[in-house]
């Protein structure tokens, strides 16, 4: 359960603002104006703090509650600029395009790929097959996970903010794809993840 203790605004207002930001391509200043038109006067920096504080926790709840995906996985990574430096967003989807997992990493190397594959296996179980690009880091990470399992059996100002925001965006995509509770209002699903 996510705590909203000590916040100046009601939980529903905070969740609406966070959901609106991660689901639609609006800036914090535009969202500040939209909220103002609805009678809620909140500064764009406060909106940024809300997204950073709550979207990561909501994404973690969504990751654990999503419906099972197909056993054929596709994994890739893309580059995102944070504080002028490139970082890597690892993403995995099943053959139907449903989100399996995602992770922002400062490096594209064996430990990062290994950590990502371990996270995916923890929540999604064993796949039938994984399709990856020819990157050495992904191949090494996949081999490290295989050994471990068989032996015992665009621009952000901070990495934290980028990680939380991207987690919220991926969660909004999962909701849109019907991976949590199909047929229920998307915002209601998002709010339920906050507890």
Automatic annotation (TrEMBL):
The highest taxon in the source lineage is Bacteria
Q: Which residue ranges does the record assign to the DDE domain?
A: 72-147
Does Oxidoreductase appear among the keywords? no
Coiled-coil boundaries: none
Q: Which InterPro entries match?
A: DDE_dom (IPR032874), IS_Transposase (IPR052183), RNaseH_sf (IPR036397), Transpos_IS6 (IPR047930)
Q: Does the keyword Nucleus apply?
A: no
**Alphabetized UniProt keyword annotations:** DNA recombination, DNA-binding, Transposition
Q: Which GO terms describe its biological process?
A: DNA recombination; transposition
What are this entry's molecular-function GO terms? DNA binding
Q: Which Pfam families match?
A: DDE_Tnp_IS240 (PF13610)
Q: What does this protein do?
A: Involved in the transposition of the insertion sequence.
Q: What is this protein called?
A: DDE domain-containing protein
Which species? Ruegeria meonggei
